[in-house]
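During the second half of the funding period, the structural biology subgroup turned its attention to how the target accommodates small molecules. The most pressing case was NAP, which had performed well in the primary screen but for which no bound structure existed. We therefore specified the complex as follows and requested a full 3D prediction, including the ligand pose.
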Amino acid sequence: MTDRPYVLLSCAASIDGYIDDATGQRLVLSNDADLDRIDEVRAGCDAILVGAGTVRRDDPRLLVRSAARRAERAARGLPASPARVTLTGSGDLDPQARFFTVGDTDRYVYCATAAVEKTRELLGDRATVVDAGDPVDPGWALTDLAARGIGRLMVEGGASVHAQFLAAGLADELHLVVAPFFVGDSRAPRFVGDGRFPWHSGRRARVCEVRQIGDVALVRYALSDRCPD
Ligand SMILES: NC(=O)c1ccc[n+]([C@@H]2O[C@H](COP(=O)([O-])OP(=O)(O)OC[C@H]3O[C@@H](n4cnc5c(N)ncnc54)[C@H](OP(=O)(O)O)[C@@H]3O)[C@@H](O)[C@H]2O)c1
């Protein structure tokens, strides 16, 4: 199991399990204190992975915001923010997206073979486009990331990416934040959709922490033996 990074999944959901709503606006689920916790978790990772759907829909920055944490990373010889990683089959990515333009850090695009050429042309030197086969196997991508020196990876969604990492048993830890409201709209994305997951009523995941953070609740689940108590 040392041939892949330690993988930490992070997600915020409503009480009824939605990770967004069905409007065009970005739904805020976390609060300021929880965003600061997420910033701390990010600062402790070598890379952050989101799916191409999240890059398109949320246009996230994926930066470490705290100046003290950026300085602490710099003192350890690390870039101010972790590297950024995404997966795509289509290569339908906007080179102007903040994923590619904000901050000075490495960016990796694990791309299905058929779209590699056009994606390399599209992104130029903004990212390393890795030919990751067809379809892209997240387990292979993890092995490749380990070879590039990524020891600790935070996976921030969205639904499709989280589902694949969970179903394939590629996650060591899950941070699930529950926001104190309902979305109540089945057109919105849920934390994960249908799937065969290694944790079910006959094999329950281990809770290693429950914490109230202002008006949200964080539950930390250990999903492998690599996760410390
Ligand atoms: N609440 C939270 O914590 C949180 C966090 C992040 C995101 N979100 C929400 O999640 C939603 C997006 O979720 P989503 O499921 O639509 O998108 P997603 O998981 O972010 O990305 C899905 C896309 O990633 C690419 N992809 C994923 N796995 C792949 C594989 N094995 N091989 C090749 N390509 C792969 C594909 O891109 P192509 O289409 O380019 O082929 C696919 O369409 C948004 O509403 C966002 O706001 C919520």
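Two results from this model are relevant to the next phase. The mean pLDDT is 96. Helices lie at 32-43, 52-58, 67-75, 98-101, 113-123, 138-147, 159-167.
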